[in-house]
Amino acid sequence: MSTTLERPALATAGKAAPSKDSRALIRNQVRAGWALLAPALLHSGVFIVLPVLSVLVLSLTDYSFGDSFDWVGFRNYADLFRDPNFGASLWHTVLYAIVVIPISMVVSLAVAIGLNQKIRGLGFFRTAFYIPTVTATVAVATIWLWIYSPGSGLANGFLSLFGFAPNQWLANPGTALPSLMVVGIWQGLGTKIIIYLAALQGVSRDLVESAQLDGAGRWQRFVNVTWPAIGPVQFFVLITSIVGTFQVFDLVYVMTQGGPGSSTRVLVMDIYQNAFQNLKLGYASAETVIMMIVIAIFIAAGRLLQKADTND
Predict the structure, then answer these.
(1) Helix axes 122-134, 173-201, angle to 10 degrees
(2) What are 161-195's pLDDT values in tens digits?
(3) Which of the listed CATH numbers 3.40.50.410, 2.60.120.260, 3.30.300.30, 1.10.3720.10 matches domain 79-311?
(4) pLDDT higher than threshold 50 for residue 226
(5) pLDDT (tens digit, 9 = 90+) per residue, 23-55?
């Protein structure tokens, strides 16, 4: 009986209250943590939270630069869905993202797997694939304008070797957007390749060798070992790719300016024209809100795909 009564007392005695010095140390650690976070929080508040709130407020007004403004509620949003330019730009942006993101991810992963092997000139190939990423988009667009040139362009010159007639790549509404997609895929490979390469080098060699000893082939090792190991990196690449493709502007502006007609008009270009050429800042803010919602939908869909892949 005495033993049973002594156990709670011993358990209580083992959980001694923290001393005054321990509590002071914890408070100092918390203060230090907030102090270290303060610059990042300040940056996020000034450059992310405030602009987002400003866009949300302006989207409910008819504000134009330098003029007074009135609250119009959701009229801008109603006008947007009756605007053919907005509909075309939204569709082209979504189509651009749907095509560019999966193709660039697959090609980047394939190249990264190749560069992860012991081959000659590995440093050269890594540098060559990364150069387009760090090159100014205006310079990249200028080079591709020459490649797509109807008269002396490299694309038509290459196709002529196989007997194909020359094409008006950027002047033809049917080929203008696909031509821009090719450039977008090519330019975005470098960053994805570097990220995938780092992820592949982090895959446990022990797991790969164990699977190999168990008789797993190369494809089986990739599906059952490598693919699950790089899952978080896949999601990161997907999110950054979604944001990047929806923000495409300078490439389109330099190469086609949204033409021919409106066949390559994208959301950011439409926002730019409404805000800085038509001076309809409230209307452009409503477009920006719609773009943020669409990006959020794509990210949510990517998250669901990742969860489904993880559960499988």
Answers:
(1) 130
(2) 888 888 899 999 999 999 999 999 999 999 999 99
(3) 1.10.3720.10
(4) yes
(5) 888 888 999 999 999 999 999 999 999 999 999
pLDDT at 171: 92
Task: Check if the beta carbon of residue 133 is closer than 8 Å to that of residue 188.
Answer: yes
- Token pair 């008269």 is found at 151
Model-level pTM?
0.85
pLDDT at 10: 46
What are the start-end ranges of the H helices in 152-280? 154-160, 173-201, 205-213, 218-221, 227-229, 231-246, 250-255, 267-272
Residue 84: the pLDDT is 92
Q: What type of residue sits at position 285?
A: S
Neighbouring C-beta atoms of residue 224, cutoff 10 Å: 14
Are the C-beta atoms of 108 and 196 separated by less than 8 Å?
Answer: yes
Tokens 């797509």 map to which residue? 148
| DSSP code for 164 | P
**Structure tokens of 162?**
């196989």
Residue from 129, 170, 132 nearest 258 by CA:
170
Sign of CA dihedral 259, 59, 44, 291: negative
Model pLDDT for residues 193-224, shown as the tens digit of each residue:
999 999 998 888 888 888 888 888 888 988 88
Spacing of C-alpha 132 from chain mean position: 17
Tokens of 87: 């509909």
Distance CA 151, CA 149 (A): 6
Q: What pLDDT is attached to residue 60? A: 94
Residue 257 C-beta-side C-alpha neighbours within 13 Å: 2
